[in-house]
Amino acid sequence: MVDDRPAAHSEGDVLLLVGTMKGAFLFWSDGERREWRMEGPHFRGETVYSLAYDGRGGRRRMLAGTQSFHWGSVVRASDDFGATWSSPERQNVRFPEDSGLAVANIWQLRPGRESEPDTVYCGVEPAALFESRDAGESWSPVDGLLNHEHRAKWQPGGGGLCLHTIVVDPSDAKRMGVAISTGGFYRTDDGGASWQARNRGVRAQFLPDPNPEFGQCVHKVVNHPSRPERLFLQNHWGLYRSDDWGDSWTDIAHGVPSDFGFAMEIHPHDPDTAYIVPLESDQFRIVPEARLRVYRTRDAGASWHALENGLPQEGAYEVVLRDSLASDGGDPAGIYFGTRGGKLFGSADAGDSWREIAGALPPIVCVKAAVIGAGARNS
Amino acid sequence: MAITIALPGALQPYAGGSLEVTLEGGCATVGDALGALAGRHGGVVDRVIDERGELRRHVNVFVDGDNVRWLDGLRTAVGDDSTIVIVPAVSGG
Fold first, then answer.
1. pTM of the full predicted structure?
2. Which helix (H) or strand (E) holds B31?
3. Measured between beta carbons, which residues in chain B are less than 8 angstroms from residue A95?
């Protein structure tokens, strides 16, 4: 199924960017998305928690947050689909020296609004947001969050104290949100100058007070550009929706085998459709009954239904991490996910049926998808 | 008299292709030497110490054969003709 011959890339081709514990892999297909060509690994031996494709303004840029076990983390860019990557001489994502902080890992790369084609956001561990105004070459910390009064009380989760999720409002250049494990969901309405915790209704059942202002272990948040105020949230126990940009949250765990999980994705064309991969518990982080199932809602969380056609339903001791579920923007939507066991699956029909794309990659920590020529895709 | 800093191959691209850099005196400690090195090859030093000025966890620095972690860290004294060796630690997964 996988062909590793060098590929010519043209408009309408579909690109999967797959970050693993041992480097990044690229998978290419045409619009049919049945046959895939694998390229890589890029950044051999380095951990790649963050990847993005930025097609805004005619650009065709891939970004990668790479972490060397020895030498630290940098953001690299490729404008030729991985034939060459930048290798910044200086560590381009750095905390100010007087902050007392040092970047441990780059968790998220997120192209900004279409109206700001040179703006890219980056979330790191320890939890902080960086912004680039030159399409990912240079980076500055967003001081309003860096100096937030809650910072001293944020606690690291199992993956460290990470800012792993960035959601923007395409209709309001001043509004965006971030999620921190464990800090919760924070929103700015003034372009990053100030940030407010927006966690009302989201449980933190690992704390004496399960309803704190902040401190929740939010695992992922997604929204849709056509309805940015509607947010879906996969929590460390809990599945929620907000229709008011996080001012309030409603439990939507209706019909799922577990409301614990990491991964979450929005359908590229329908703000009522979202995807998750529930896990059995926070002690045994494996898909329930060892059956690999994606769950989909088409009614904004009123109901969820298992998608299992083509996925292993026996002996599948798998976990899908928070950034390893993606959609490609095609029509019908392509949905993809990677497991910590190194398996990559894809659906060309919005999740109705699935095929294994690769079965023996290193542990997968990040999957992103894009249709070339279709603008920014940063699922 | 000069201090010699030996680099691992992984850092060679950030030192203009060199595996060895020579510093002409004026350094009392390893930190001083790395500071002088930063003026010439900042990309090397970024990968050896972090923004807090601390030695990265999986990088070892030896002065005349001794690991500075067991001496005085970046405050370890160097002589005018010391050899500083930077190596990645035996670690990984």
1. 0.95
2. helix B30-40
3. 51
Assigned architecture for domain A2-371: 7 Propeller (2.130)
Contact between A70 and B58 using a beta-carbon 8 Å cutoff: yes
Residues 6+ apart with CB under 8 A from A279: A258, A260, A261, A262, A285, A286, A287, A288, A319
Class assignment of domain B3-88?
alpha beta
Q: Return d(Cα A315, Cα A320) in angstroms, integer.
A: 15
- Residue B29 to residues A112, A130, A188, A321, B74, Cα–Cα distance (Å): 45, 34, 45, 44, 7
pLDDT tens track for B47-86: 999 999 999 999 999 999 999 999 999 999 999 999 999 9
Q: Which two tokens stand for residue B77?
A: 């004294």
Determine the Cα–Cα distance for residues A246 and A213; give it in Å rounded to an integer: 12
Report residue A37 as tokens: 């060509």
Report domain extents, chain A: 2-371
Give chain B's end-to-end CA distance (angstroms, integer).
41
Q: Between chains, do A90 and B46 touch, taking CB under 8 Å as contact?
A: yes
pLDDT digits (tens, 9 = 90+) for A67-86: 999 999 999 999 999 999 99
Phi then psi dihedrals of residue A374, to 5 deg: -105, 25
User: Range with the lowest mean pLDDT among A7-16, A152-161, A229-238, B21-30?
Assistant: A7-16
Distance, in Å, from the CA atom of A182 to the CA atom of A161, rounded to the nearest integer, reads 6
ipTM of this predicted complex? Answer: 0.92
Confidence class for position A2, pLDDT limits 50, 70, 90: low
Q: pLDDT tens digits, residue range A313-349?
A: 999 999 999 999 999 999 999 999 999 999 999 999 9
Q: How far is A142 from chain B (nearest CA, A)?
A: 17
User: Contact A108/A64 with Cβ under 8 angstroms?
Assistant: no
Q: How many CA atoms lie within 13 A of A277 on its CB side?
A: 31
